[in-house]
Amino acid sequence: MEEKIFFYYTSDIHSHFESWSKIVGYFNDKKKQRTKANQSYWLLDNGDYIDRFHPIAEATMGKTNVELLNKAEYHVATIGNNEGITLKYDDLYHLYDRADFELICANFETIKGTNPSWLKPFTTMESINGVKIGIIGLTAPFNAFYNLLGWHVDSPFDALDRYIKELEAETDVILLLSHLGINEDEAIARRYPQIDVIIGGHTHHLFRDGEYIDNTLLTAAGKHGKYVGEIILTWDHQNKRLVKKEAYTTNIEYLNKRDSITQQQLELHSERSSQLLNQPVVHLTKPLEVDWFKETELIRKLVETLKDWTNADCAMLNSGLLLESLEVGAVTYGDVHRICPHPINPCVVELKGDELLEVVRGSLTKAFMELQLKGFGFRGEIIGKMVFAGIEVKFTNNKKNDSQVKEITIDSHKIDMDKIYTVATADMFTFGKLLPEVSRSTYKKYFMPEMLRDLLVHTLKEKL
């Protein structure tokens, strides 16, 4: 006898609820089909379901997201970096206290004592006809952030070494919920042939019909709920082995059917989040302009706050971090969140004078200012003009009448090319190649758990 076993999954939703009622409606139809056919199925989420850019997530620190997963009747989820490093310790410690699903992450632990009661390295379940299935979860080890918040993320390979033999002995089939990224998934597939399927995420890649590395099936469903994944495993009971593994993704955007109950829930949560965030911060007697290509008063004061907050020699932030102007009248936390939704933290790096000069030059180029950025925590449109505190930039015009940086001074002193300066900025510039000198700095100090919008609140209260 052959038995088909089904798994449906989401990954990297990032609180993008535009398609959530469609996803739930699609899964509900699949659940009815499986139930009618007397077939086993499970619903899984692969992390980064929570993203504080959305007011619903911000207002309850992700607890409403957990409630939405409960209502959708998910069975298993793992932790992504957006759950892990954008919440205060106590908020994350109690995030899943009321989860109706199992939360698994084998390389995640507290460094403050006892792990939360909901945290498990893996889970096992059994199909209708007795096939034993093990699911293990792993998340990306951003310990420069996690350790500051009271958590530690172990090497995924060390975690697998601890648990893979136990899973292999207890189960017939092993699935990995991996919030590690495509490169790590491929390495794991080569190193651990015991793993039958890897559900990938974090790097937002999409495998429409799955990809094989040796005998391991790799799947991935992109980001923001545009796609959902389906895995079908066929077990031969006579020979006691998997005889077929299939993986598919479905583009949700083109489906017309929405689950009406879920849509009503989202509308209700949206109203409640607005009420919770409708707490006054300040009353403005003059408007505060935001312009991505100008140094306005609001961004200038925010950069000054960043310099003071971190006690750095100088500071810099890009104008694109502020999305909208503020009008005369009451400004609420909801307004602050709306204009600065990014889960981005302050950071200080050390740069030599010559490196800092290159950073300033690079950040003021037209190409850099107009760069449309997605990721690294940035939830805006373009980077925009870089604004400085503690730095004065002098320009000269070349033959093409383009402005070029001639000289910079730090606190009224000409920059010393060999001196080490502390530079405060947004943590997103320590990732990737946006500003290479910043990302290559050997000294990086992240300020957790405060985000840039917390500094914006302080700026509005104290400096404007």
Which helices and strands occur, and which strands form pairs?
Elements: E1 2-10, H1 20-36, E2 40-45, H2 55-60, H3 63-71, E3 76-77, H4 81-84, H5 89-93, E4 102-104, E5 108-110, E6 119-120, E7 122-126, E8 132-139, H6 143-149, E9 151-153, H7 156-170, E10 173-179, H8 182-191, E11 197-200, E12 206-213, E13 216-221, E14 227-236, E15 241-251, H9 260-277, E16 280-284, H10 297-310, E17 314-318, E18 329-332, H11 333-339, E19 346-352, H12 353-363, H13 366-369, E20 386-389, E21 391-397, E22 403-410, E23 413-414, E24 420-426, H14 436-439, E25 444-446, H15 452-462
Parallel strand pairs: 1-2, 2-3, 3-4, 4-6, 8-10, 10-11, 11-13, 17-24
Antiparallel strand pairs: 1-14, 5-9, 7-8, 12-13, 14-15, 16-18, 17-20, 19-24, 19-25, 21-22, 22-23
Helix pairs in contact: 1-9, 10-15
Protein name: Bifunctional metallophosphatase/5'-nucleotidase
Domain 5'-Nucleotidase C-terminal: 291-428
GO molecular function: hydrolase activity; nucleotide binding
User: Helix- and strand-based class?
Assistant: alpha/beta
Q: How much β-strand is present in the residues?
A: 25-35%
CATH C-level class of the largest domain is Alpha Beta
Give the CA-CA distance, first to last residue: 73 Å
Work out the number of β strands.
Answer: 25
Counting DSSP H or I runs of 4 or more residues, the number of helices is 15
CATH architecture of the largest domain: 4-Layer Sandwich
CATH superfamily heading of the largest domain: Metallo-dependent phosphatases
Q: What's the alpha carbon Rg, rounded to whole Å?
A: 24 Å
- Stretches where pLDDT is under 50 for at least 5 consecutive residues are none
Shape: globular
- How much is the average pLDDT? 95
How helix-rich are the residues, as a percent range? 25-40%
Question: Strands of the largest sheet, in order across it?
Answer: 6-4-3-2-1-14-15
CATH topology tier name of the largest domain = Purple Acid Phosphatase, chain A, domain 2
The biggest beta sheet is recorded as: 7 strands, mixed
Q: How many structurally independent domains?
A: 2
Keywords: Hydrolase, Nucleotide-binding, Signal
Pfam families: 5_nucleotid_C, Metallophos
InterPro entries: 5'-Nucleotdase_C, 5'-Nucleotdase_C_sf, 5_nucleotidase/apyrase, Calcineurin-like_PHP, Metallo-depent_PP-like, Pesterase_YunD
Protein name: Bifunctional metallophosphatase/5'-nucleotidase
